[in-house]
Every structure is written in structure tokens, then in C-alpha cells.
From TrEMBL:
It comes from the Bacteria. PANTHER family: NUCLEAR TRANSPORT FACTOR 2 (NTF2) FAMILY PROTEIN (PTHR34957). InterPro entries: NTF2-like_dom_sf, SnoaL-like. This is Nuclear transport factor 2 family protein. Residues 18-130 form the SnoaL-like domain. It holds the Pfam family SnoaL_3.
Length: 147
């Protein structure tokens, strides 16, 4: 069965990324999936998880995550590379987790890749992995530094 076309036409990769994090904050699966390209080759890797390939696998994983309610993520330290048809954003996600002991912030290094198609910019890859506890001490994580 063919996948429905994304319901949103994002004019820029920044607009698509903003909608992605907005969807997580409001546990809005429909908005979240509108950010993803309709391509069956999309991929998503959550911290410590398996690689998910294809629209159905990605949607099912996000449905399970959002089934627990909103996800509080603050995207920070964004570094963006963009060409005419593609964009790669690397950033640090500060994931706020509520536990019995209180609120914790877990940092993840994240890569979001966007492709520009006939219906605008859409995500084709989201890859997150846990970052070190003290990422501020990582001298290599300086986005504005030239090598």
C-alpha cells in the first residue's frame, strides 16, 4: 500500500526540524510523521536501539515512545551543513527525564538529515546516541572551531 504524501510542506530544513521537536514536545505523532519523507528508505536510530528502516518501522517506534506522553527535548549546539537538495544538522539533545529521584537531563549527540523534494524539506534520517555526562569538557565538541 503506498504511503500518503507528507501533510506539510516545509520550506526549509530548519522549519522541518522545528516541527519535529514541537511534535515530540506535544506527543503529536501525526505532526512528527509529517516531518519525515514518504520514502521507504528513511532511517531512525534511537540511543542503544536497532536501526529502523522504512516508514512503518519508524512510525511504529515513535508511536511507542509518544504513547508514554510528551518527550521533553531541548536541541542545543546545532551545527548545520546545507546544499541545494540536502542538509545535515548535528546537535546535542538535552533529554529531560523524570524519575523517582527527580528530574535528570541526559545528553545525546544527534544527527538529523533532510532532503529537499517536490513537497519541500523532509527528514530522511534521525540518529541519536548518548553523549558523555560532561560534554562541556569535550574540547572536540566546538562547532565554531576550524580544523
Amino acid at each position: 500500500m503506498p504511503k500518503p504524501a507528507p501533510s506539510a510542506n516545509y520550506a526549509t530544513p530548519d522549519e522541518a526540524e522545528h516541527a519535529f521537536y514541537e511534535a515530540l514536545e506535544h506527543a503529536d505523532l501525526a505532526l512528527l510523521m509529517s516531518v519525515w519523507a514518504e520514502d521507504e528508505e528513511i532511517a531512525c536510530i534511537h540511543p542503544g536501539g536497532s536501526r529502523l528502516v522504512g516508514h512503518d518501522a519508524v512510525k511504529q517506534a515513535w508511536a511507542e515512545i509518544l504513547g508514554n506522553g510528551p518527550v521533553s527535548i531541548r536541541p542545543t549546539r546545532r551545527h548545520a551543513l546545507q546544499s541545494l537538495m540536502g542538509a545535515v544538522h548535528t546537535l546535542v539533545e538535552q533529554v529531560v527525564v523524570e524519575t523517582r529521584e527527580g528530574t535528570q537531563v541526559v545528553n545525546c549527540y544527534t544527527t538529523n538529515v533532510f532532503h529537499k523534494g517536490a513537497t519541500g524539506w523532509h527528514m530522511v534520517l534521525h540518529h541519536a546516541s548518548q553523549a558523555p555526562d560532561d560534554i562541556d569538557a569535550d574540547e572536540h565538541d566546538v562547532p565554531d572551531m576550524l580544523h
